[in-house]
Amino acid sequence: MRIKTFEIRVDPAFREHDERTVNEFLSAVRVPRLHCGCLRSRSAWMLLVIFNEETADEPAMRAALAGRHLPAGAELTPGECERFEALRVWRDRRAAEMGCKPFVIASNRDLLNVARSGAASPADLLSIAGFGSRRAERYGEEIVAVLGSVAEADFD
């Protein structure tokens, strides 16, 4: 693991450039943790990123990472593993935003079922075990967007 710090200036004349710099960096690394704080004396935000660089072993690392969170006996293809991990990251971030536990949004088993499905719309989620109309209505668009982003990354 490595760390990198960024300063994001509040002044609109600089903020867009600073944010673009951070986003470019974040798109090239895996980020298990980040911290931020306000630097009032400098009218800026400080961002501390703890990251791992992408390697040739990245697919194996993703499989190992996803495997730690899978229900016992679950075996995934590399594509399903990638979808599961993306869904798990989305769910954990969404839960943190909502101030609730991740399982309130979806259990790992529910995410596994979605990763294995060919869901392309919120309506498709209704046929997946663990997804009723309320959950599909509340999170369906976000889940489909996550699945779409993984599919797009496969073509890059």
3D architecture notes:
With 156 residues, this protein is an alpha+beta fold. Helices cover 53% and strands 19% of the residues. The chain is built from 6 helices and 3 strands; from the N terminus they run βαββααααα. The chain has helices spanning 12-26, 58-67, 78-98, 102-105, 108-116, 133-155; strands at residues 2-9, 29-39, 44-53. Strands 1-3-2 form a 3-stranded antiparallel sheet, with helices on one face. A hairpin with a 4-residue loop joins strand 2 and strand 3 (44-53). Helix 2 packs across helix 3, helix 3 (78-98) crosses helix 5 and helix 3 crosses helix 6 (133-155).
Write the topology of this structure.
Blueprint: E1 2-9, H1 12-26, E2 29-39, E3 44-53, H2 58-67, H3 78-98, H4 102-105, H5 108-116, H6 133-155
Antiparallel strand pairs: 1-3, 2-3
Helix pairs in contact: 2-3, 3-5, 3-6
In terms of DSSP E residues, the strand content is: 15-25%
The CA-CA distance between the termini, in Å, is 26 Å
The major beta sheet can be summarized as: 3 strands, antiparallel
If helices are DSSP runs of H or I spanning 4 or more residues, what is the number of helices? 6
SSE order: EHEEHHHHH
Oligomer: single chain
Helix amount = 40-55%
Look at the structure and give the mean pLDDT: 81
The gross shape turns out to be: elongated
**Uncertain segments:** 60-69
* Largest sheet, spatial ordering of strands: 1-3-2
Gyration radius (Cα, Å) is 18 Å
Number of strands: 3
What structural class do helix, strand and pairing data support?
alpha+beta
